[in-house]
Specification:
The protein has 395 residues and is α/β, with parallel strands linked by helices. An eight-stranded mixed beta sheet has the order 1-9-8-5-4-2-3-13, with helices on both faces. It has a three-stranded antiparallel beta sheet with strand order 7-6-11, with no helix packed on it. Strand 4, helix 6 and strand 5 form a beta-alpha-beta unit. The two termini are 16 Å apart.
C-alpha cells in the first residue's frame, strides 16, 4: 500500500506534527536576528553548537543545513583526509539496507561505494556479525544507525572497527533523546550525525548536527559546509553550501532545551502503545536493550499475517479507515532501490526483506497523547479479528 497524497487527506490522527517550543521562546531571538540583519554565521549558530556539544557529550559539534548534508560532508571529509581516492582502493562504506535512503546517497555523493548488510531481527539495527563478515581491504568506514531511535550496539561495532583499523560512523538522525547507560548518544565512534527536521524530538525546521571527537574532522567539515573555503577564499577540497541559517539555529536552541520533556512524553506514548500491543499474537515490537532508552522517534511494529490474521497493509487500511495515518518504513529497502541496486550486498538480506514487508510505524509527535496511542492500538488489535474495515469513517 503506497502512501496516500498527504495534501489531499485530512487525517483525524496524522502521522506526525512537529513538537515545537512555544513561539514566545523564540520570538526574542527572531527579533534580534531580524534587527541585526545577520542571517547566517552569527551568535545563534555559535551558541547552538556549544549547547549541543554539552548535551551530546561530544568535543566538537558542527551544525549544518540538514542531516543528509551532514552525512555527505562526513563521507567527503573521510575521503579528503586520505588525499582523495585511496591508492589501496579503500572506498567502501558498510551500512544497513534497512535505513533511510539519505545514508547510501551520502556515500555515493562522496564518491564512495555502499556495501549493504543485514540487521538484527530484534533491535532492527545493523548486525555486528554481518559487519564483521563484510569487512575487507576496500573498507573505508562502517556506518551504523539508531533505527527508529533504538541505539545501535556501538560497543560491539567499535570493537570490530578498532580491530579492522577503520572508523565507526553513526547515522543518528533519530538519536536525539536516545540514551545508552543513562547518557545521550553522540560521543561514540568517530562521528554521529543528527537530524533536526520536523519529525524529530529537536526541531530546527530543517538542519543537522555532526558530533565528533576529532578536531581535524570538525575543521574539515566546517570548511566543506562553506564550499570548501577555509577562510582564505581558496578551495582545497570541493564542498557545498551546508550552512545553517540563524533563525533555524534559534529554533534549534529553544527546541534542544525541551529535549528531556519531549523525550519523557514520547516514552509515555510508547508505553501506552506497548500496553495495548505487547503480547498480541502476530505482532512483534522492537527490542530495546535494557541498558538503553529509545528516543521513540518512531514506534514501529512487525505484522506476521499468518499469526495475526491480516498482513501489514491490511492493518494500515484499517487504520486509514479510522482516520489514522501510518508509514511503511523502510519498504523498499535501500539495496532494492534503482539508485543503489547495482552496489554490493554482503551476505543475505533475509531479515531486512522480511522487515520491509512487515514493518508499520504508528503516529508519533506533538499531536499524540497516551490515551490516543491506546485508541490507535485498539484499532490495530480489532483489525486482526476483521472488526475494522477500510470502509469505516474515513479521513
Amino acid at each position: 500500500m503506497s502512501d496516500p497524497p498527504q495534501a489531499a487527506i485530512r487525517w483525524r490522527v496524522p502521522f506526525v506534527r512537529p513538537d515545537l517550543p512555544p513561539f514566545e521562546a523564540v520570538e526574542p531571538a527572531y527579533r534580534r536576528i531580524h534587527s541585526s540583519g545577520l542571517l547566517t554565521k552569527g551568535s545563534e549558530l555559535t551558541a547552538f553548537e556549544a549547547e549541543a556539544a554539552r548535551v551530546l557529550g561530544s568535543e566538537h559539534v558542527v551544525a549544518v543545513s540538514s542531516c543528509s548534508v551532514g552525512l555527505a560532508l562526513v563521507m567527503r571529509a573521510l575521503r579528503a583526509g586520505r588525499g582523495g581516492p585511496d591508492p589501496a582502493g579503500r572506498v567502501e562504506v558498510i551500512l544497513p539496507s534497512f535505513i533511510f535512503l539519505a545514508a547510501p546517497a551520502a556515500v555515493v555523493w562522496a564518491g564512495l561505494e555502499p556495501v549493504f548488510v543485514d540487521v538484527d531481527p530484534a533491535s532492527l539495527t545493523i548486525a555486528p556479525r554481518a559487519v564483521a563478515a563484510a569487512l575487507g581491504p576496500r573498507t573505508l568506514a562502517v556506518l551504523g544507525c539508531h533505527t527508529f531511535g533504538c541505539p545501535c550496539d556501538t560497543d560491539s561495532l567499535e570493537a570490530i572497527c578498532d580491530d579492522a583499523g577503520v572508523p565507526l560512523l553513526v547515522d543518528a538522525a533519530h538519536g536525539l533523546g536516545s540514551r545508552r547507560r543513562g547518557k545521550q548518544v553522540g560521543a561514540e565512534g568517530l562521528a554521529q550525525v543528527f537530524s533536526l527536521s520536523p519529525t524529530k524530538l529537536v526541531c530546527a525546521g530543517e538542519g543537522g548536527l555532526v558530533a565528533t571527537s576529532s578536531p581535524a574532522l570538525a575543521a574539515t567539515r566546517r570548511d566543506l559546509r562553506e564550499y570548501g573555503n577555509d577562510g582564505t577564499y581558496d578551495c582545497l577540497v570541493p564542498g557545498l553550501n551546508g550552512r545553517m541559517p540563524e533563525p533555524a539555529a534559534a529554533l534549534g536552541r529553544a527546541s534542544l532545551s525541551r529535549l528531556p520533556e519531549v523525550a519523557a512524553r514520547r516514552a509515555a506514548i510508547a508505553a501506552a502503545y506497548t500496553r495495548g500491543l505487547g503480547g498480541v499474537p502476530g505482532l512483534t515490537l522492537q527490542d530495546i536493550d535494557p541498558s538503553a532508552d529509545s528516543s521513540w522517534k518512531d514506534y514501529s511494529v512487525l505484522v506476521d499475517p499468518d499469526a495475526f490474521g491480516t498482513d501489514r497493509d491490511g492493518v494500515r487500511r484499517a487504520l486509514a479507515g479510522a482516520g489514522i495515518d501510518s508509514r511503511t518504513y523502510y519498504d523498499p529497502p535501500c539495496h532494492a532501490m534503482p539508485a543503489f541496486r547495482h552496489h554490493r550486498v554482503a551476505g543475505g538480506m533475509t531479515v531486512t526483506e522480511r522487515l520491509a514487508a512487515a514493518s508499520l510505524s504508528l503516529p508519533m509527535g506533538g499531536q499524540m497523547t497516551a490515551p490516543l496511542a491506546a485508541e490507535v492500538a485498539a484499532v490495530i488489535t480489532r483489525s486482526a479479528a476483521g472488526l475494522v474495515s477500510g470502509a469505516g469513517s474515513g479521513p
